[in-house]
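Exercise 3.2. Students should predict the tertiary structure of the chain below and write it as structure tokens, then compare their answer with the key that follows.

Predict this chain's 3D structure.
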Amino acid sequence: MKKKFGPFIINNHKPLIIAEVGVNHGGNFALAKKYISMCKKSGADAIKFQTYKAETIVSRNSPAYWDLKSEKTKSQFELFKKYDKFNYLEFKKLKKICDKKKILFMTTLFDMNDVSKYNSLIKIYKISSSDMTNVPLLRKIGQQKKYTIISSGASTIKEIKFALRVLSLPKNKVCIMHCVLNYPTKDIFANLEYIKTLKRIFKGYTIGYSDHTVADKNLTSITLACDFGAQIIEKHFTLNKKLKGNDHYHSMNYKDLINFKKIIYKRNILRGNGKKNLSNEKKSISFARRGIYARTDIYQGEILTDKNLITLRPENRLPSKHWDFVLGKKVKKNIKKGDSLDWSVI
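Answer key:
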């Protein structure tokens, strides 16, 4: 079923794709511009950054919750401090570049005081799983009355309902994303069937999937998420999976997303529209179906039976579906073995 979400029309078979760059640009503006170009080129509908300052998102004593084998920084504050380089001016410039390239600019805000400041740049808000219980931020974003995506990582159904009450937005303006708040998420914990649960419980809302599993070349996790009904897909995006940083190693890259788009395109072609169209099978009907033929020489006045008739391809003049009607009838003239019958001889 098609529906509007922000400036997009989405459905189960052609999801809205958000390339989550986050802070993978490392605070390098030129690199951030390159990310915009690559996300657009790879077929993403939106590119999403993250806007925060370490001092307003975590305390100085904030332990890591990610895989320390892949990202060795043990303090959230230390990690966020590395990447909180951009200010409003940089994001405003990035938004203009996105507009020019016709890819939607998005950024996750982590500070309620940034909502008013960045509101003019944002068409669709995104709320992180970590802020599902952050009342001041939820309320402030809800007051903007814009389309909003909330990630439900580490949240119970009760907590999701709580966040929705605080947001106080119409159902058609909210997307609830299934998400697992582990970096990376092991396949065994992805639990993509939960998408169906969210669709059942939260009728009227758009349901999506924010993925943190390690990307394979076919992006199997988000492909399966689409099968389960996710209409918005968010996946971290990097130019180089081997770079250090907490998001590069579980991100998709340009080739992954290109391949995913090809897979979705082919699956949509194979899926069809649920209606039977025989226009491309006319030749097959004529040549592959059987008609009624003479098994032996048949003489004028002879009765037609299963001893002197046979069904053969092609269908020709007298289709085999009339077999029962033909049996027991007399022929008006001689018919040679192997000839196809037509109504004029009966």
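Discussion points: Residues 10-271 form a domain with the TIM Barrel fold (CATH 3.20.20.70). The CA atoms of residues 62 and 76 lie 5 Å apart.
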